[in-house]
Specification:
- The chain has 344 residues and is of the alpha/beta class.
- The protein has 2 domains: 149 residues, Rossmann fold, CATH 3.40.50.10740; 175 residues, Glucose Oxidase, domain 1 (3-Layer(bba) Sandwich), CATH 3.50.30.60.
- Helices cover 26% and strands 24% of the residues.
- An 8-stranded mixed beta sheet has the order 6-16-15-10-11-12-13-9. The protein has a 6-stranded mixed beta sheet with strand order 2-1-3-4-5-14, with helices on both faces. Strands 7-8 form a two-stranded antiparallel ribbon.
- It is globular, with a radius of gyration of 19 Å.
Length: 344
Amino acid sequence: MSKVIYPEKVLENSNIGTVAMSCGAVDEVGHLKVSSAKENFEMRGFNIIETESIFKCEKFVSTSGEKRAEEFMSLWSRDDIAYIPVLRGGEFLMESIPYLDKFDLSKFKPKWVQGYSDVSLLNFYLTTKYNIATIHSNSFTGFAMKPWDDTVKLAVDVVQNKETFTQESFEKFQAHSDRTLEGACAQFNCTEEVVYKNLFGEQTENVKISGRLIGGCMDVIKLLIGTPFDNTKKFCAQFEEGMLWYLENCELSVLEMKRTLWQMKQAGWFENAKGFIIGRTNSKEQIWDFTYEDAMIDVLKDLNVPVIYDVDVGHTDPQWTMVNGTFAAFEYENGKGKITQYLR
């Protein structure tokens, strides 16, 4: 097995850095989320280091791509910072990648970098280029909840003391987020039943998949294809145990989802795939006679590997914590599932 670099465990009283790699928090709800998350971390003994642009946003970005890369490096280059939950998601994190690529991040002590949605691109880049484990889970503002739900707390537990951890499918999920002031720090309002689905088999079938975990939000990680910053095929080829892909769709139509999966496949990303777990999405609307399932079947069927979808990953809370680069074993049966991740 090839070596994945796991950042050191985050100790009590450690410094935590946050940076706006997409848009900052500029409205009342955003400010409340930041202050509440900061308070929650400080109550647990952590010290928060904020970069310059976290309260800025114009045309969907906090500042220029170059400045965002520099602000990230101001945290990454500090040995006294152990953990960087990126402020929030957004739209145009990709603009910072060419500037970030000019730095050699391997010269510095690796940190746990965490987030999802637009932050998936940063996580994916760091893991596939440097073999550094990263975390697909709540961004910094996701920690505004009072008190923390167990699924939110888990991400912090992982960076503090977990070497192996198991997550089981939830009973219910929250279909839509409450983006009001009243909902900014509220608990999840889970009303919809969680049912995983087996794309190529029976619902009752027992399916087991294991491999190195890699993936994120399809909307943004696909942007690396055809750029000098795409190290995916080389990264995946290192692992004899193969890759367990997790993918989630934020806003792609069913047509664009098929195009995205096709592009990933043609770029060689799936050559070492042992299976796929696809997260829940609110972007499933059928177009003419073309369905969400068609988008996956048309591209993935000839890989002859399992595909389980509507899994607890992505933009409908609560969500699993996924560690890019770690070895993972996933099991599905009767509409439910569980995943165990081994940080080794």
